[in-house]
Amino acid sequence: MNRKYSYSIFREIKYALTTHYLYSTSINCFTFAPSKKRMSLYPTQSLSPKNTLRERKKIKILFLLKFAAIFATRTHLLSKITTRRTSMIETLISSKTRIKLLLKFFLNSSTTAYLRSLESEFGESTNAIRLELNRLENAGMLTSFLKGNKKMFRANKEHPLFGDVQAMMMKTVGLDKIILNVIERLGEVEQVFLVGDFAKGIDSPIIDLIFIGNIDKNYLVKLVEKAEEVVKRKIRYLIYDHEEFVQHSLAGFASEALLLWSKD
Predict the structure, then answer these.
(1) What pairing do the DSSP bridges indicate for beta strands 206-213 and 234-240?
(2) What predicted TM-score, i.e. pTM, was given to this entire model?
(3) Quick one: 174-262 is in which CATH superfamily?
(4) For the CA atoms of the chain, what is the radius of gyration?
(5) Rounded (5°) CA angle 247-252-257
(6) Cβ-proximal residues to 222 (8 Å cutoff; 6+ apart), any chain
(7) N- or C-end of the chain: fewer Cβ atoms within 10 A?
(8) Confidence check: pLDDT of 56 > 70
(9) Which three-class secondary structure string do you get for 40-80?
(10) Distance separating alpha carbons of residues 207 and 183, to the nearest angstrom
(11) In this structure, which topology does domain 3-163 adopt according to CATH?
């Protein structure tokens, strides 16, 4: 692979990197050589000149996703970018349509969707969504199957980067901070479910949660107010004790509820 093409890949993320110092990290076919002023990208293995455009695109998207996952999990940097989560993910992954698709399929990995439904949901052109779906499928991040005459897509849970990308989406939304600053401080919590738009993989200014357990409501209000300042989103919630939960069993939410946390 020539340096011109390597640079075109690198250019998409260089602005996110020049302000931070990371240790040299090998990712697939590339090695980052960082310094305080610049970062260089070098191929660590030779690729045949006969590589097709599809293969190059596959390498590119896997490279960007894996780097973004590693970057997002650097705990010493996360504290500095808490208030800029969305802008950071948009810097690392330039396509907003791709970000929407990653949220859609990886936040709740049981989500399935087809092209026309995504068009009406995203409010974007069919061609733009099809292009990104094909890129993610060619990279192995999504799988597809036929349901009637519809081609349905879903996250590939067997992909080696599945856990990393899902964790990155959780951090982007701020769910990791909710677990840390709210759920783990409440005490007698049995389970917490994510419902509403985010459980469907749709970005939203509101995070909807269902708490199961013997919850101190006054303390929960205080924790939620502090968490809202951190994640820059409103948090809306319902509370059930164990008996109510057994009786109602997430009535109205069962089809979309995503288990976010459990004491077991």
Answers:
(1) parallel
(2) 0.65
(3) Beta Polymerase, domain 2 (3.30.460.10)
(4) 20
(5) 95
(6) none
(7) C
(8) no
(9) EEEECCCCCCCCCHHHHHHHHHHHHHHHHHHHHCCHHHHCC
(10) 14
(11) Arc Repressor Mutant, subunit A (1.10.10)
Helix/strand/coil for 107:
coil
Q: Record the tokens describing residue 16, joined without a space.
A: 């996110």
How far apart, in whole angstroms, are the C-alpha atoms of residue 97 and residue 24? 30
Q: What is the pLDDT of residues 190-222, one digit of tens each?
A: 999 999 999 999 999 999 999 999 999 999 999
206 contact partners, CB below 8 Å, separation of at least 6: 196, 197, 233, 234, 235, 236
Strands (E) across the chain are located at 26-27, 30-34, 39-43, 113-114, 142-147, 150-155, 189-195, 206-213, 234-240, 258-262
Structure tokens at 125: 């052109």
User: Position of tokens 């783990």?
Assistant: 184
